[in-house]
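Lecture notes, continued. The same structure-token format from the folding unit now serves as the input rather than the output. Read the line below as a description of shape only.
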């Protein structure tokens, strides 16, 4: 890529970092506020069935919106407690969506490549966290989660994103662990791809969606069959052999 394109990529990445930094500040302030509120409640003495309510217009026209058992609320407000954990998981999911739906495409465009050819293992790790939250109700399977860049140790069971893990992820984004790169088909493979049928392309793309196949240039098992079909078509049309 030329210098002008590289500066554009730098600009997009700087904006990404600034945006993610805002989420870190949001997480930090929210965590502190939750902890402080829990500490205030903890100074009192409450029965197991006592409830804390969230209301509005308490001085003029009181309206109650939500309630929780106070002793449960105090527990969830603790350092790395349930409330802060939910906020951190939600923010990480939002950060991944911003990358996948916005910044990934802008980086690709500035680099003169297709977004589908852009690979970022760190964001692949974040995608696994999002997948666990969205599709598995934040439950880590017995097999655990295998990361490529992050060295987090997440045991099977409830997904817990600690304050330290959240900071570590953003440090990785700001540091040298993004490792964005482009993986494109060779000119020869691109020419073959253009001659594939719709079903063949679908099988080819599905194969390269499997982790490591595209990055490591693993040969698609269906390639020989496609080459034979293309060769047969050439003979049937009377085309000269290459």
């Amino acid at each position: 890529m030329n210098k002008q394109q590289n500066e554009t990529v730098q600009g997009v990445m700087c904006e990404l970092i600034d945006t993610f930094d805002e989420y870190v500040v949001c997480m930090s302030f929210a965590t502190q506020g939750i902890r402080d509120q829990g500490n205030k409640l903890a100074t009192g003495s409450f029965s197991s069935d006592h409830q804390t309510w969230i209301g509005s217009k308490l001085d003029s026209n009181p309206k109650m919106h939500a309630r929780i058992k106070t002793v449960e609320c105090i527990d969830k407000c603790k350092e790395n407690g349930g409330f802060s954990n939910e906020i951190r998981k939600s923010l990480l999911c939002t950060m991944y969506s911003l990358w996948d739906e916005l910044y990934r495409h802008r980086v690709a465009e500035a680099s003169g490549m297709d977004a589908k050819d852009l690979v970022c293992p760190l964001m692949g790790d974040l995608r696994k966290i999002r997948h666990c939250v969205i599709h598995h109700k934040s439950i880590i399977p017995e097999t655990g989660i295998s990361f490529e860049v992050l060295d987090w140790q997440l045991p099977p069971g409830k997904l817990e994103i600690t304050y330290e893990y959240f900071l570590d992820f953003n440090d990785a984004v700001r540091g040298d662990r993004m490792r964005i790169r482009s993986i494109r088909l060779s000119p020869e493979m691109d020419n073959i791809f253009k001659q594939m049928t719709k079903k063949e392309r679908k099988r080819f793309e599905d194969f390269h969606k499997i982790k490591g196949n595209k990055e490591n240039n693993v040969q698609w098992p269906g390639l020989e069959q496609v080459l034979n079909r293309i060769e047969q078509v050439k003979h049937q049309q009377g085309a000269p052999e290459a």
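Point for the exam: The CA atoms of residues 125 and 215 lie 15 Å apart.
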